[in-house]
Amino acid sequence: MPLVSSTPLLQAARQNGYAVGAFNVHTLEMLQAVVESAEETDSPLILQSTVGTVKHLGADYLAAAAATAANRTRVPIALHLDHCTDFDTIVQCIRAGYTSVMIDASMHPFEENVAQTKRIVDIARAAGVNVEAELGKVGGVEDDIVVGEHEALLADPQDCVRFVELTGVPTLAPAVGTAHGIYKGDPNIDFERIRSIAAAVSVPLVLHGGSGIPEEQVKRCVALGMSKMNIATEIRIVFSNAIKEVFATNPDENDPRKYMIPAKKAVKAAAIEKMRMLGCIGKAADCR
Ligand SMILES: [Zn+2]
To answer: Which CDD domains does this one have (predicted)?
Structure first.
């Protein structure tokens, strides 16, 4: 089927108490690997690219590859632009065929975040594209965006209510204590805050910084109302490690297929593992 907006995928997840995995991909093989994971397990899927990957590969290439993958399968797949601070890049991606975009104006004061988000919501609605916005500040490093621990700021539930009302944003990423990258210790997730925010707003909620959160905590986040989890660093690591292993045993290897095939397999296994944790396996039919 063609690429779909992530809105119905996430609404079904919110209603039925599971979360959809959103995987950041950087190469064709990574994209194919997560699509195969979704297909084999009959799971809904969100493919994501960062702004850096859009600059690296081109929005048109990414959208064409995602559309081809979606057309080859019966599971619903959305293509999402992760953490974008730039209006023109968002418009470029929507034009190229992205079905979901994130406007990240969380570094600005509340009113400015509202104004920038609303502007994107108005454009995206006309195109049938989902929008995600961030409230509070998720810590860590994502592409070129670096938020230090002292700058990270958790989202206030009442601000979330006002933000959703003022912007009409269909998906919200409230900062709840997770961070981008791999955690040094255990993540410091504010579960009570997730509960309050999920009770206060009806839109699907997004958990950023999903790499390396222990399974029990992932499940708790989902049970409390998180409907999408972003996974970037973890699949990048398994992909790269599989390639390093090939070269460790065969430093002269020069056939890309010889190292891309094991890398793809590793990503596929990791993605299925995340889908299982999120409870979205077998849920593709919810949005067909
Ligand atoms: Zn993020």
So the answer is: TBP_aldolase_IIB
Number of neighbouring beta carbons within 10 Å of residue 248: 9
Active site residue 104: no
185-243 pLDDT tens trace: 888 899 999 999 999 999 999 999 988 899 999 999 999 999 999 999 999 999 999 99
For residue 178, report the distance from its CA to the centre of ligand 1, in Å.
Answer: 9
Please give the distance, rounded to the nearest whole angstrom, from the Cα atom of residue 54 to the centre of ligand 1.
16
pTM: 0.95
Q: Where are the domains of the chain?
A: 6-239+267-287
Ligand 1 centroid distance, CA of 201 (Å): 20
* CATH architecture designation of domain 6-239+267-287: Alpha-Beta Barrel (3.20)
- Is 105 strand, coil or helix? coil
Q: Please spell the DSSP secondary structure of 14-67, one letter per residue.
A: HHHT--EEEEE--SHHHHHHHHHHHHHHT--EEEEE-HHHHHHH-HHHHHHHHH
Q: Which of 42, 60, 82, 88 is catalytic?
A: 82
